[in-house]
Amino acid sequence: MPIAEARHESKTKLLQAAIRVIRVKGFTATRVRTVCEAAGLTKGSFFHHFDSKDELALAAADYWIEGTEARFGSASYHELADLAERFAGLCDFRKALLTGEVARLYLPGGDDGAGDLRHAPGDPRGM
Question: Residue 126: inside a domain, yes or no?
Fold first, then answer.
């Protein structure tokens, strides 16, 4: 069974919420309470899975890498034989990530009802 399937649902919610909250507030300003509220879970659930905010942040970084490696690895620009076309395809792919629904890059499965915390700092949808 792949790691993502074996992960407990509440842990996945916490990881996704941590990515959103840290992106918006920064690590230092992020509080466990805020992550729990964004995930719709209790602090008890948080401490069941993580010993500290630092541990959560490291796990969230691993979770983000897991999702983005798959997305970048399966991108169609890899199939282009011509180097210039492949580079242009990479640029188009990255542009689509920046101008499209940001949550799709950071959260496997897309929108999870997180409201303002789904969007990057400065994104008017997150204000």
Answer: no
